[in-house]
Description:
By secondary structure, the chain is an alpha/beta fold. The protein has 5 domains: 149 residues, 3-Layer(aba) Sandwich (Rossmann fold), CATH 3.40.50; 56 residues, SH3 type barrels (Roll), CATH 2.30.30; 63 residues, no CATH class; 56 residues; 82 residues, Arc Repressor Mutant, subunit A, CATH 1.10.10. 48% of the residues lie in helices and 10% in strands. A hairpin with a 4-residue loop joins strand 5 and strand 6. The longest helix has 20 residues. The chain is elongated.
Amino acid sequence: MTDLRETAMNSKAWPFEEARALLKRYEKAPPEKGYVLFETGYGPSGLPHIGTFGEVARTTMIRRAFEVLSDIPTRLICFSDDMDGMRKVPDNVPNPEMLREHLQKPLTKVPDPFEEFESFGHHNNAMLRRFLDTFGFEYEFISATEYYATGKLDAVLKLACERYDQVMKVMLKSLREERQQTYSIFLPIHPETGRVLYVPMKSVNPTDHTITFDDAEGREWTLPVTGGNVKLQWKPDFGARWAALDVDFEMYGKDHSTNTPIYDRICEILGGRKPNHFSYELFLDENGQKISKSSGNGISIDEWLTYASSESLAYFMFQKPKTAKRMYFDVIPKMMDEYHQQLRAYAGQDATQRLANPVFHIHGHNVPASDMVVPFSMLLNLASVASAEDKDTLWGFIRRYAPEASPLTHPGLDAAAGYAVRYYNDFVKPHKVYRMPSDVERLALVELRDALKDWGGPMDAEELQNLVFSVGRDRFDPLRDWFKALYEVLLGASQGPRFGGFIALYGVIETVALIDQALAGDLV
Length: 524
């Protein structure tokens, strides 16, 4: 472990860079609370989404890296802001009319439209926990409602009362003039309606820790800030939570980054030490627009998992978190293949290379072996030429190519075959466009077909690739035009696999028949 730790201290992988910065936080003395606290936040106004996965996955990667560098215990909490008022009725829930009656009530006081849990907030919290548990994340769940109601935030709320003017000064600088007139860091819960109120304060009493305000009817109320009677606006809540829980690390999207000085300063005013933080770039849809929960563009977690493994999604999340990335269906095949390439490479790497390998940060010290004896991109092409409607069709070819493989012994490959069939039918098949070969291409295809008819060598991908090369070498300059022709004429696509590997998997006789179909115009 000592040697690994020394290696990790020099690793350029971004989780180790963040973990080393976090370790410096305690270079003089370990944390008094006895552990380093990582936090992720969740707004339960809707269901967990792909951004939630990314935030927890990336935080977990940094936590793992920290645990390599240090023996200080760690905790990861997922904090649900379920006391937030429901601002609008989501589009994807039943009983919307019922929900409209409860607008502005804390989410844990809004009835569950699915009629399964105590409240809408409890429902979404349960979905979050199930979501995180599905991926095997190690975390502790915290409900804002519970923390406000049971007094766990009372100390920081009292301090916010006592230092109200200081916190307000920080906030008012960030607000437009008209917003400044009515803004307060405190949001009282109306004693009668139960709604979260956005009202100015008439007074804030730092001695008895109460606030006084008028409601919409002009009635004056005085409430203690403790015991769940009042919650904090979301920006002050960020800093107050950091102070109350002594958070050491939290990451969030670039859209929060301009608020970082606000969160930090409020945390310090309320007696805390600002945590280390990490701002990641946002995901883009197929048109380069920012992915939004409300607009539903981009790709959802369920959609990704329909066509690829969760590990491939974690691999995508690892890649350059400070760079905006397109996240659409067309990135999935590449992520699947690259993830398994890294798995295969890991076994032969030294410690430095392993700590830089994304699969270490996905799996920790328990990196599995890849059982993908056929690349995902090849499975897609196989699904195409075989017009596969189910993975059993693909297994007929796979068994011949790799007799030792079976769904039982190669479960990852079996799952990938299922993903490939679904992906092919939903995304490849509708856009396939075959064309007839040119005169030069026709001559080359005839030569390749005849050579394959006479093939007496082994079903070896490299030897078959050499054969394909030899046919095209004298006819095409550049040679890539030959392979482009093979893909467009035989597969109906602009790019494809190493063709020798494809022949070895699909079969020599079957490839001869495919070429004959193309030459006869039957594929167009």
